[in-house]
Amino acid sequence: MIRLILNILWFIFGGWLSGLLWLLGGAILALTIVGLPWTFAAWRIASYSFWPFGREVIWRDELGEQDAGTGPLGLVLNIIWFIFAGWYIALSHLLIAVAEFITIIGIPFALKDLELAKLALAPIGRTIRDKP
After folding, report:
1. What are the pLDDT digits (tens) for 15-30?
2. How far is Cα 35 from Cα 23, in angstroms, rounded to an integer?
3. Measured between alpha carbons, how far is 124 from 78 in angstroms, rounded to an integer?
4. C-alpha to C-alpha distance for 93 and 34, rounded to whole angstroms
5. pTM for this structure?
């Protein structure tokens, strides 16, 4: 029940905007053709941005999945992402988290924004799952 309440509050106070911006970013990446490798990562982050409580971000190799995102290609894609997009998207989530930490009630939301900042730094090779 608490997860539902936190997700509703998250969605009302900015989760919808964050999710829509990630969806838009993914759509723009898809249009460029060159950005296709990052499109689905952006859309995964969007789904997490809309409804983060009760879910967690993990590396795919923790699930035993081996794909292009977990090997050397994934590393190269994450480095390119970091240079052109990841650092300033992560910085925006970090600044929002600092503002949320100032209020005691905003601490759970700040922790989720810190997770989003970490995810924004290197999204390739990660997946989102429901917490056990």
Report:
1. 899 999 999 999 999 9
2. 13
3. 6
4. 25
5. 0.83
Token readout for 88 is 């300033």
User: With DSSP H G I counted as helix, E B as strand and the rest as coil, what are the percentages for the chain, rounded to 5?
Assistant: 75, 10, 15
| Tokens 């939301």 found at | 109
CA angle (43 as vertex; 34, 103 as ends), nearest 5: 125
Strands (E), 1-132: 55-59, 126-130
| pLDDT tens digits, one per residue of 25-72 | 999 999 998 888 889 899 999 999 999 999 988 887 765 555 555 678
Rounded to whole angstroms, the Cα distance separating 6 from 121 reads 25
CA separation for the pair 15, 18 (Å, rounded): 5
Query: DSSP 3-state assignment of 1?
Result: coil
Q: How many CA atoms lie within 13 Å of 103's alpha carbon, on the beta-carbon side? A: 9
